[in-house]
């Protein structure tokens, strides 16, 4: 498939546009992508879908198959303000539940207070998934990795300033990958916080990570693929 055949697609808050056939169809494809991606890496019982999928902003890279958009990779982003709208806790609460990590909880609470005071947008990015068939094609996989970085940068720099939280999974080395983007291990009083086991990933060891400023590398990748973002397809409420 030619590079120009790929499309960046943004599905913003499926809850708001659920009456649209396009939303229902694409949402179903997102679930298929997640199940295919996660079950190819983790053991039985991994659960890559949750309530937040209905209210998140999903950023996808799609190909076309018989005139239908088919996600090949994607991630979701949930802001604190979106969680407040739907009376849901920020996703880190679910992530840290039962992990006995009070320092992590306090560090997140401190960031939340800071964003409330500064007016910065706080978002939690997660569920980065690549279809297992795509991973076998190294040039395409590399291209989609770079396009993922570009999409993260553009999503979080096109409006108000964003502060980001996420989780780096050691098993698949996303903790190291996200370091190149500008993420750092979340710290408390200057000390990096420990890893912990994420229940929804069948106990995979993860590190809570935080980003305040994108790296020069990430910014350069975003510039390289800016045209893809500018030509994105957006499905959202009017």
Can you describe this structure?
- The chain is α+β, with helices and mostly antiparallel strands.
- The protein has a single domain (3-235), classed as Aminopeptidase, CATH 3.40.630.30.
- Helices cover 39% and strands 27% of the residues.
- It is built from 9 helices and 11 strands.
- The strands form 2 sheets. Strands 1, 2, 3, 4, 5, 6, 9, 10 and 11 form a 9-stranded mixed β-sheet that branches.
- The longest helix is centred in the middle third of the chain and has 20 residues, at 138-157.
- It is globular.
Write out key terms for the chains shown.
Aminopeptidase; two-stranded antiparallel sheet; globular
Radius of gyration: 17 Å
Number of strands: 11
Strand content is 25-35%
What is the H level of CATH, i.e. the homologous superfamily? Gcn5-related N-acetyltransferase (GNAT)
The domain tally reads 1
Distance from first to last alpha carbon: 33 Å
The helix content is 25-40%
Under the CATH scheme, the architecture is: 3-Layer(aba) Sandwich
Which topology does CATH recognise? Aminopeptidase
Structural class determined from secondary elements? alpha+beta
Oligomer: single chain
Which CATH first-tier class would you pick? Alpha Beta
Sheet of most strands: 9 strands, mixed
Q: Summarize model confidence as the mean pLDDT.
A: 93
> Helix and strand succession?
EHEEHHHEHHEHEEEEEHHE
The unreliable regions are: none
- By DSSP (H or I, 4+ residues per run), the number of helices equals 9
Shape: globular
Topology overview:
Elements (H helix, E strand, L loop, with lengths): L6 E6 L8 H19 L17 E9 L2 E12 H6 L5 H6 L5 H17 L2 E10 L1 H4 L2 H20 L4 E8 L4 H8 L2 E2 L1 E2 L2 E2 L3 E3 L5 E8 L4 H9 L1 H5 L2 E3 L3
Parallel strand pairs: 1-11, 4-5
Antiparallel strand pairs: 1-2, 2-3, 3-4, 5-10, 6-10, 7-8, 9-10
Helix pairs in contact: 6-8
């Amino acid at each position: 498939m030619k590079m120009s055949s790929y499309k960046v697609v943004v599905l913003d808050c499926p809850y708001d546009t659920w009456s649209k056939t396009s939303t229902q169809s694409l949402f179903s494809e997102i679930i298929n992508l997640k199940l295919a991606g996660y079950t190819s890496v983790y053991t039985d019982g991994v659960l890559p879908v949750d309530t937040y999928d209905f209210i998140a902003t999903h950023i996808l890279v799609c190909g076309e198959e018989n005139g239908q958009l088919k996600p090949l990779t994607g991630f979701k982003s949930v802001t604190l303000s979106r969680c407040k709208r739907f009376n849901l806790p920020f996703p880190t609460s679910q992530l840290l539940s039962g992990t006995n990590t009070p320092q992590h909880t306090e560090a997140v609470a401190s960031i939340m207070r800071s964003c409330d005071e500064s007016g910065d947008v706080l978002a939690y990015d997660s569920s980065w998934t690549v279809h297992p068939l795509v991973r076998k094609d190294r040039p395409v996989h590399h291209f989609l990795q770079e396009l993922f970085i570009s999409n993260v940068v553009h999503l979080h720099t096109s409006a108000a300033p964003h502060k980001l939280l996420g989780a780096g999974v050691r098993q698949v080395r996303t903790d190291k990958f996200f370091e190149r983007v500008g993420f750092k291990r979340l710290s408390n009083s200057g000390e990096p916080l420990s890893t912990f086991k994420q229940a929804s990933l069948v106990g995979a060891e993860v590190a809570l990570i935080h980003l305040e400023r994108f790296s020069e590398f990430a910014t350069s990748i975003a510039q390289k693929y800016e045209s893809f973002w500018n030509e994105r397809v957006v499905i959202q409420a009017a």
